[in-house]
Amino acid sequence: KPMRLWGGRFEGGPADALTRLSVSVQFDWRLAPYDLLASRAHARVLHRAGLLTDDELQRMLAALDDLDRACRTGEFRPTVADEDVHTALERGLLERLGSLGGKLRAGRSRNDQVATDLRLYLRDHVRTIVSRLVELETALISQAEENAEVAAPGMTHLQHAQPVSFGHQLLAHVHPLSRDVDRLRDWDRRAAVSPLGSGALAGSSLPLDPAAVAAELGFDAPAPNSMDAVADRDFAAEFLFCAALIGVHISRLGEEIVLWASQEFRWIEVDDAYSTGSSIMPQKKNPDVAELARGKSGRLIGSLMSLLTTLKGLPLTYNRDLQEDKEPVFDAVDTLLLVLPAVSGMVSTMRVNRAKLEASAPDGFALATDLAELLVRRGVAFRDAHEAVGHLVVWCQVNDKDLGDLTDDELAKVSPHFAPSEGPGGTPGVRDVLNVHGALAARSAFGGTAPDRVRDQIVSLREIVDGQ
Ligand code: ARG
């Protein structure tokens, strides 16, 4: 007969269909180490309340340690008859202690227990996720450092816009990840609240000490409202938002890598170790890691939606719907821990085709803005400068020329603003500004793409990442 944590007031057993619907141990078993941590703290608080003798506490703690060991070695496993992780562990405790095992449940409910376990689990795993994010940031920064001087086509609307330092573009993917780390750290501040002591919903009539339990489990404080404590899953939803946004960030990076690795771009080559082949086309080398990074964002966003939809409209306090909080959370944790190391490896091993980037940087009349800004420095209104350069671009297209190929006569014919082509008294002239590296260096204000500023950015990002 399966051991249940309830049943005294029931006649006969539950229907098979109910049991199958209700059981969660196949996915919540991963909470076992955290449930055992919380159980140790709870045993101590029962002892301090005079509800366990010294000897009972020692036997209880020894049994919990032994159960922990047996869980880790796989010697103790949940069975299909265990409704959830809490049921399985109570069975393990009873097997070791007999009736003494039944004392641990005093003053505690699975409602405050499961909320505590999930917070402990997430706070622990978020630390690992942060480390994986830092590795990805570090991989991107190293590539940026090697490519700070490399000019690349900068794009808006996926059209050539203005040349940029390729390092600058790589660093543009670091900042979102750095904000993600910051968000997770901030998340932890709100997650560090302990529900234990809230019982089913109203607290306990036993003289427990929620503050001591909170401190023992590494929380900052006990929950100030027992009803909120067992009903609240904000910490899970907020985590899933952070996870979904990380997914969005690596998806955008993944999309760029897919483009950059294509025949049309040829900006980078993904290392063989991070590429896959085709079962039919012998020549193929596909950037699957980047595509999976892009694809996995879908399930991360889905997990967030799933939990928010579960929570919406739930009355206080605990409702069994809340059991649906765990799979999206676990899936998001697993997904991030799977995808982040692969993306980091792909980024740190990719080879940058500098010659191709440099050659493409001025394509698509990407220096047109520099020319317009030269006219502005000569006193022309930007509106007129914009118009004049626009005409020049059309003239070049019609005559199949590049901005840099134009003679002084041709320039003067399109607009008197371009004459003289030389700048007076050593100031820059038309041909001086039609220079990719000059265009990069000129964007030297804070946050700009000048290689000097990119190097400053690397220094400050490294400082930030070191502190993460
Ligand atoms: N397994 C449940 C969950 O994950 C915890 C048990 C609470 N069950 C209950 N009937 N109060 O939410």
TrEMBL record:
Catalytic activities: 2-(N(omega)-L-arginino)succinate = fumarate + L-arginine
All residue ranges annotated as the Fumarate lyase N-terminal domain in the record: 15-302
Molecular function per GO: lyase activity
HAMAP family: Arg_succ_lyase
PANTHER family xref list: ARGININOSUCCINATE LYASE
Entries under InterPro entries matching the protein: Arg_succ_lyase_C (IPR029419), Argininosuccinate_lyase (IPR009049), Fumarase/histidase_N (IPR024083), Fumarate_lyase_CS (IPR020557), Fumarate_lyase_fam (IPR000362), Fumarate_lyase_N (IPR022761), L-Aspartase-like (IPR008948)
Protein family membership: Belongs to the lyase 1 family. Argininosuccinate lyase subfamily.
Entry annotated with the keyword Amino-acid biosynthesis: yes
Documented EC number(s): 4.3.2.1
Pfam families assigned: ASL_C2, Lyase_1
Gene: argH
Pathway listed: Amino-acid biosynthesis; L-arginine biosynthesis; L-arginine from L-ornithine and carbamoyl phosphate: step 3/3
Domain annotation Argininosuccinate lyase C-terminal: ranges: 365-420
Keyword field: Amino-acid biosynthesis, Arginine biosynthesis, Cytoplasm, Lyase
Organism: Microbispora corallina
Protein name in UniProt: Argininosuccinate lyase
Cell location: Cytoplasm
Matching CDD domains: Argininosuccinate_lyase
